[in-house]
Amino acid sequence: xxxxxxxxxxxxxxxxxxxxxxxxxxxxxxxxxxxxxxxxxxxxxxxxxxxxxxxxxxxxxxxxxxxxxxxxxxxxxxxxxxxxxxxxxxxxxxxxxxxxxxxxxxxxxxxxxxxxxxxxxxxxxxxxxxxxxxxxxxxxxxxxxxxxxxxxxxxxxxxxxxxxxxxxxxxxxxxxxxxxxxxxxxxxxxxxxxxxxxxxxxxxxxxxxxxxxxxxxxxxxxxxxxxxxxxxxxxxxxxxxxxxxxxxxxxxxxxxxxxxxxxxxxxxxxxxxxxxxxxxxxxxxxxxxxxxxxxxxxxxxxxxxxxxxxxxxxxxxxxxxxxxxxxxxxxxxxxxxxxxxxxxxxxxxxxxxxxxxxxxxxxxxxxxxxxxxxxxxxxxxxxxxxxxxxxxxxxxxxxxxxxxxxxxxxxxxxxxxxxxxxxxxxxxxxxxxxxxxxxxxxxxxxxxxxxxxxxxxxxxxxxxxxxxxxxxxxxxxxxxxxxxxxxxxxxxxxxxxxxxxxxxxxxxxxxxxxxxxxxxxxxxxxxxxxxxxxxxxxxxxxxxxxxxxxxxxxxxxxxxxxxxxxxxxxxxxxxxxxxxxxxxxxxxxxxxxxxxxxxxxxxxxxxxxxxxxxxxxxxxxxxxxxxxxxxxxxxxxxxxxxxxxxxxxxxxxxxxxxxxxxxxxxxxxxxxxxxxxxxxxxxxxxxxxxxxxxxxxxxxxxxxxxxxxxxxxxxxxxxxxxxxxxxxxxxxxxxxxxxxxxxxxxxxxxxxxxxxxxxxxxxxxxxxxxxxxx
Length: 774
Ligand code: NAD
Known about the structure:
Layout: E1 6-10, H1 14-25, E2 29-34, H2 44-53, E3 70-74, E4 87-90, H3 96-109, E5 115-118, H4 125-129, H5 134-138, E6 140-145, E7 154-159, H6 165-178, E8 182-186, H7 194-212, H8 216-222, H9 235-241, H10 243-256, H11 264-267, H12 271-278, E9 292-294, E10 303-307, E11 312-315, H13 322-330, H14 342-360, H15 369-379, H16 386-393, H17 395-404, H18 411-415, E12 422-425, E13 428-432, E14 438-440, H19 450-453, E15 461-462, E16 466-470, E17 475-480, E18 486-487, H20 489-505, E19 508-512, E20 521-522, H21 524-533, H22 536-554, E21 560-563, E22 567-569, H23 571-577, E23 581-585, E24 589-591, H24 605-617, H25 620-632, E25 636-637, H26 640-643, E26 655-657, H27 663-674, E27 686-687, H28 691-706, H29 712-726, E28 735-736, H30 738-753, H31 756-768
Parallel strand pairs: 1-2, 1-4, 2-3, 4-5, 5-6, 7-8, 17-19, 18-20, 19-21, 21-23, 22-24, 23-26
Antiparallel strand pairs: 6-7, 9-10, 10-11, 12-13, 13-14, 15-16, 16-17, 24-25, 27-28
The structure holds nicotinamide-adenine-dinucleotide.
């Protein structure tokens, strides 16, 4: 009944533009209206917004051309455009009077059976629709997106008293499948779930840090990656959002939450923030900085920290408490709670208060703890939801500590005493209800999170870097789980034995994980170990194993399908290059970026790209140039659509989907469909362009260096890439096999590994996370 094919967005600010962009990404024609501008060009506001959508630094689009799907206008001249639209999403400023006036305008032109929704963060639906006709109320909902819309997975969907169930169902289906969002249906309560818990958590972390005398660096080193939350931490997050905006958000939440809510204890704007706002220290968007400020330090990058006493910037202190280092390395936040120093006290205070607050929301604010956990994972990028964290601490442990502190124990936590919030029972994952019973965790058809599924499975084989599972239907699955999913010898060992096992016992093999990033690449620390100690034999053996493992995977007698999301870089992308099919998440980032650390792709990356380019160009020499340029520059693609012209995405073979929660089911179906008629397709030999083309590439490098475009070590690295893609000092037309190309990759890698500059590049990358231009 409610079919969404055409959409309109009103308000071309941060959120409206993001929503319009994501609709365009989904292939939907969208109309974007804002208020008329005062000058000649009445559409100037929406027009400027579209320019922001094309900003290279904040890519809201999967492909630049999709901007053509957005038609702009203004709410005085172009309201008629709304007449044939199926969904009108309002994202104007957070003012009830303006929103209500707009709804009356919308209702006068919209067609019956169209849906209207608001992106409001704080206004209850009952107030938004007050006085509107019943027909409008029946087709109205809140669709609360998060910023940036393309990347944040959460969509909170709120139903009003009069909203038709079919409207909610239509929005749910459309926003899940087409826009790729993880839907959490919320009740109409202040801040819904994500901001309710998220803003409480960061206000608590901020207040506690200042009261306990922790510096921003100290607080962020704990309330960040070690806790399984984004590395911006708390002070970094304030800078990112804007100190002024955060202060407004806290104030507005304070004004709508009931007086007994625990939020009020941490809602107050602290004196230091008042002074920061008054003096213009509003965070990254301002010119003065915030708690941190980007600064030129030795080697060109870094930041300084605001000193609260002098209100000037001092050197950044990168020392991290040992517990934070250990917790991050082990992926176990509970290590932060051990010990009796002030860091442990800080971690306990922030965590216990936040987790208790979240647990108190069940059942009154939401009946399901899964909704609360999803909101934090999808809306705030926490690795675990609050109730998963409570389980990790241990409910009884937590109760004992709260009692020791003389603090009240929330009722829902009492209910969980002696058990846990989640459990696996009779092979199914279940969660606790407020009445003390358990219910199966069932997600919508086709939504499957491996982080959940794996809890009900026992690995066939596992080591510290990766695991191999039988996920049913004779489908095997390899999961990486090392830090940042960096791939080292252990990862290859696991792939090797999984491929051997799957070749015998499975119909198909998947490579997938539910981490933020599929894989950031080969483990640089291992590589640095070889390079720094000059162990070239060891390095050669490592690379050979990497290459041969991926080769075995490529030639396994069963289909191998990968389903990545987030980053698949360097050695991680080389894994994808050796699969039969890749089902990408739409926001996947791919690239062979080895040159940035002064090496070449040494796990078959150059080889595979050469084959692909040779085929795409219909000529090996032309293909060699393409591979040389793209690998040399370390080109990356920020979507499968950007990856296609770079030969990283195979048209007609690979595909992409919008919702990463659907990757696993989609990849499983694809692999099973391929299995019955699967035949291995082998690469033939390549007739290499040889020494003359290599010489031309070296001339090109010399010229680019002379123009100041390349550093000396870029030239050295580029020369080695050229050697591989041409075959090096050989006659044109010499035929090389895949294994010959593997040998050339290792030869180039070792030659570069012997240079001081490569060692310096790797060290710099490991220390700073950015490339050294030497
Ligand atoms: P914004 O200030 O960036 O943009 C608002 C836009 O609405 C402006 O372009 C303004 O010109 C336009 N506008 C104002 N009145 C209008 C009217 N009557 N008709 C048409 N356009 C009008 O605001 P934003 O951050 O995009 O927020 C929009 C909505 O989304 C608000 O309700 C806000 O609470 C909510 N929200 C914001 C965020 C966020 O992170 N910024 C997140 C979730 C929800």
